[in-house]
Amino acid sequence: MKENFTTKIRELKTEINIDDKLYLNRWKPDHQSHLEIIDPKVCEAKCSGKDCTIFCPARVYEWRDGRIAVGYEGCLECGACRIGCPHQNIRWRYPRGGYGVQFRLA
Amino acid sequence: MPEKFDAIVVGAGVAGLAAAYKMSQAGLSVVVIERGDYPGAKNVMGGVLYRSMMEDLIPEFWKEAPLQRPVVEQRFWFMDIDSVVTTGYKSQDWAREPYNCFTVFRGQFDQWFARKCTEAGVVIVNETLVEECLVENDKVVGVRTNRPEGDIYANVVVLADGVNSLLAKQLGFHQEWQPQQVALAVMEELKLPSEVIEERFNLEPGMGTTIEIFGGGTLGLVGTAFIYTNKEHLSLGVGALLSQLRQAKIKPYDLLENLKKHPAVRPLIRNAEPVEYYAHLIPEGGYKAVPQLVGNGVVVVGDAAQLVNGIHREGSNLAMTSGRLAAEAIIRAHQMGEFDRRALSHYEETLRNSYVMADLKKYKDSSHLFEKNPKYFNEYLPAANMALHEMLTVDGTSKKDKQKRIMQRILGGNSLYSVGKDLYQAWKAMR
Lengths: 106, 431
Hints:
The complex is a heterodimer of chains A (106) and B (431).
Chain A: H1 5-11, H2 18-22, E1 26-28, E2 35-37, H3 40-45, H4 52-55, E3 61-64, E4 67-70, H5 80-84, E5 90-92, E6 100-102
Antiparallel strand pairs in A: 1-6, 2-5, 3-4
Chain B: E1 4-10, H1 14-25, E2 30-33, E3 48-50, H2 51-55, E4 69-79, E5 84-90, E6 101-103, H3 106-119, E7 123-125, E8 130-136, E9 139-145, E10 151-159, H4 166-170, E11 182-191, H5 194-200, E12 208-215, E13 223-229, E14 233-241, H6 242-248, H7 252-260, H8 266-269, E15 273-283, E16 294-295, E17 298-300, H9 316-336, H10 341-344, H11 346-352, H12 355-362, H13 366-372, H14 375-392, H15 399-411, H16 416-430
Parallel strand pairs in B: 1-2, 1-10, 2-7, 4-12, 10-17
Antiparallel strand pairs in B: 3-6, 4-5, 4-6, 8-9, 9-10, 11-14, 11-15, 12-13, 13-14, 16-17
Helix pairs in contact in B: 1-3, 1-9, 9-11, 14-15
């Protein structure tokens, strides 16, 4: 069968290293996280999809050793995880003033 | 710094700066609080800034503002996996004053706009996060920042804090946005010499073009992809409703990389070097998602109020107009010496009477329709590609037989009636 959008979506494979993209940006990392998993047990017991590990455009969230690891330092501050978490289990704030990503162009 | 200002603006994007500029011109004392290192450091936009609404604030701004290219051509691509149907419009009228719109870098433009505000008397405070609104007796009286002794007071607070709009939510003006009310977009700046850009995009020196891509850029998800020309960069991005990305389990940057490999895109970006990578939410809730806009001592403008016309990829213009109209209402309230909801409701009135709410109302059902019925992006756009492919591929098959094949493809398993109904509903949602 000829390739269509659905088969293409199935085939999409990440060959890219997201860090290569994130390295392009200028960062002022804070020492404290602005992102917080409210109840880690919800991720483990109730969330089968672990959607945040897929749709987060900076791959801040990774499922490691039975829990969600939060790499807040590379956060692009878009807010998608707060809205997209199927269990509203992410406490999302802005980084403190002056911290986080600092765009030059856009 | 005085203890109390006439107005506090939260967020130095174009909505906030428009409000600040206008109020300051009328003699009000205004402070803008920005969480980035500088205005624009956190601001992400596909890159098209409209002249008319900016000129409502600063006449002939293009003579001094840092702009990328005036847009002289807008192209529309209807994309399948390895083909594309193209159309567009190019006008010499857009290549000369007063222009229609420009590509800009918000990192540069917003700094310039903020400087104009400073010259007009606005105080801009960077690197400062507003944590909450200060509310006394059911009235917003100021904001609490993350600085020590960081409470600032004012008669009116303008919430221009962008799509995430935590402050308006805190005030109860809206619930949390739903995943189908926002699009998640990712974008890269790709560096290329300006002559190469002009050659590849068929442009006179200094002129620019935009390409909006439907269908294949998002692999059928409700959303768009785009390529905009800047002076020495291309902005390449793709965005889809967060609900759809989540459901399809797609990484947004995979869509971006996939788009770069498309045969229609690849030659345009060859040897271009990525220099910056962004992600941003775009309010797509439209008319029905517009929150409470006015409260006692507070107004909401721009993305924070969901003022984006997704169908026409307009946002910065709605932001600037809402900022300006909010400022006018605050100036009026200032003259009356009253700042409650009733006094400020002039903003809501003028906004409703402007193109901003008229346009949102016009398209109030469109995003929902496209989400509800995946066939538009998934089937009809590829079918358009197939139709042209059939008719333009000369292989000895009669045109009549080809037409039959096309009709079969368009109808697929659907009845003529259901296709007709889809077309009618699309027309109804867009008319």
